[in-house]
Specification:
Elements: E1 21-23, E2 28-29, E3 34-39, H1 50-63, E4 71-75, H2 79-91, E5 94-100, H3 105-113, E6 117-121, H4 131-145, E7 149-150, H5 158-162, H6 164-174, E8 181-185, H7 190-201, E9 207-213, E10 247-251, H8 253-267, H9 273-285, E11 294-299, H10 313-320, E12 330-331, H11 332-338
Parallel strand pairs: 2-12, 3-11, 4-5, 4-7, 5-6, 8-9, 8-11, 9-10
Antiparallel strand pairs: 1-3
Helix pairs in contact: 1-2, 2-3, 6-7, 8-9
Length: about 350
C-alpha cells in the first residue's frame, strides 16, 4: 500500500524563499550606484538550490509523476544535492545523489545527515574527460536498474527555472520595481532563465548580466579546468537560451577567491564561490552602469562549505601561489583604469 504524502508549502519547506535583499555599503566605493545582494544562502538548506529542489519534487508529487514510494536519483556538485536531501527527507522519499571529487566534504556530510545515499564518482568520463558526464551516466544506469525511480534532471527541468520566477518577483517587489541591472551566476542556467523569463513577461526594464566561469563553455569559451563547484559548465545546459542575458562576464577561479574574501572582510558576508564571482563581475562593468541605478547581485550560497578551499590560506597558496590582497574596496575609477576586456 502506498503511503500518503502531504504535499505543499508547509513545515520547514515554508521557509524557502523570501530571502533578504541587503545593500552593500562598503565593498564598492561609488555613491552613484546602489548595489544590493540577494542572500540566497539564508534559505533553510543553505543555498538558492532549495527553490528548484522543492519546486521539482512538489510538482512531481502533485502531478503524479513522482509516486509516494519513488526513489529520487540526481547528479549534483553539492548544493542541489543538499536541497533535494532536505526536501526528500521532509516528504519521506529515498534519495540517491551522485557526486564527484570536487564536491565538498561538508556538502556530502549534510546530504547524509538528511538520510541521502551518496555515491562518489572518482573517474571522469573517458571520452569528454568530465566528471559531470560520468555522473549523468551513472544516474541513467541507476535509473534503468531501480524500480520506481525518478530523475529530477536539474539541467533541463523547467520546474528548476520556473522556481526562480519567484526569486525575481521578490527582488522586484523589494525595490518597488526599480531593478536596473541583475547579476546572476550560471551553471544549470535555471536561475538565469527563470529571472529572465519573469523580467520579459512583466516587461521590466532590467538588463541582465550572466556571470560565467573562465573554462566554462556556456558562452562559447574554451573548456578548461575549474576549481569552484557549481559555477560554469563543461556541458551545455539544456535550460540555456542565447537570448536570456543582455550581457555576460567571465571570471576566473582566483576572482572568486578575491571576491569572497572581500565580502567577508568588508561586508561581513561569508558567501560561497559563485557569490565572489558575481561581485567581481559587477566590479568589471560598474563603470558602465548609469548613475542613480539599482543593481542586484544574487549570492547563491553561504561560505561555510568553502572553509577548506576559498577561505583556506593553504588551499589558495597551493592553487594560486599567493594569497591575494583582497580586502580593499574598488572604485569605479580604478576599475575603468584597469579594465582589460
Amino acid at each position: 500500500m502506498l503511503k500518503s504524502i502531504n504535499i505543499g508549502y508547509s513545515g520547514i519547506l515554508s521557509t524557502i524563499g523570501n530571502t533578504p535583499l541587503v545593500r552593500l555599503t562598503k565593498v564598492v566605493r561609488d555613491d552613484d550606484l546602489a548595489v544590493f545582494a540577494k542572500l540566497e544562502g539564508l534559505n533553510p538548506g543553505g543555498s538558492i538550490k532549495d527553490r528548484p529542489a522543492y519546486n521539482i519534487i512538489n510538482e512531481g508529487l502533485r502531478s503524479g509523476v513522482i509516486a509516494s514510494d519513488a526513489v529520487i536519483i540526481e547528479s549534483s556538485s553539492g548544493n542541489m544535492g543538499v536541497g533535494l536531501a532536505q526536501v526528500c527527507s521532509y516528504f519521506g522519499l529515498r534519495l540517491i545523489c551522485i557526486v564527484d571529487l570536487k564536491t565538498s566534504p561538508q556538502n556530502i556530510s549534510l546530504m547524509e545527515a538528511y538520510g541521502c545515499e551518496v555515491e562518489l564518482i572518482s573517474i571522469p568520463d573517458p571520452v569528454s574527460g568530465e566528471f559531470l558526464q560520468a555522473r549523468i551516466d551513472r544516474v541513467q544506469s541507476l535509473m534503468s536498474s531501480t524500480k520506481g525511480s525518478y530523475w529530477p534532471d536539474q539541467y533541463s527541468n523547467l520546474n528548476n527555472s520556473g522556481s526562480h520566477h519567484q526569486t525575481m518577483r521578490e527582488i522586484v517587489t523589494s525595490l518597488n520595481g526599480k531593478v536596473d541591472y541583475l547579476f546572476c551566476a550560471t551553471s544549470t542556467c535555471g536561475t538565469l532563465r527563470g529571472c529572465a523569463e519573469y523580467v520579459r513577461q512583466h516587461r521590466i526594464p532590467t538588463q541582465i548580466y550572466a556571470v560565467d566561469a573562465v573554462g566554462s563553455i556556456i558562452f562559447g569559451g574554451q573548456k578548461a579546468k575549474r576549481l569552484i563547484p557549481g559555477h560554469g559548465a563543461a556541458i551545455m545546459p539544456k535550460l540555456f537560451q542565447v537570448t536570456l542575458a543582455d550581457h555576460y562576464v567571465q571570471v576566473t577561479d582566483l576572482d572568486c577567491v578575491v571576491g569572497c574574501r572581500r565580502l567577508a572582510r568588508q561586508e561581513a558576508i561569508l558567501a560561497g564561490g559563485s557569490s565572489g564571482a558575481v561581485l567581481m563581475a559587477f566590479e568589471q562593468v560598474m563603470h558602465k552602469l548609469k548613475p542613480g541605478s539599482n543593481s542586484v547581485l544574487i549570492f547563491p550560497d553561504r561560505g561555510e562549505r568553502y572553509l577548506d578551499t576559498i577561505y583556506s590560506d593553504e588551499w589558495v597558496k597551493q592553487h594560486f601561489g599567493a594569497i591575494p590582497d583582497a580586502w580593499q574596496p574598488i572604485s569605479a575609477e580604478e576599475i575603468c583604469l584597469t579594465a582589460t576586456y
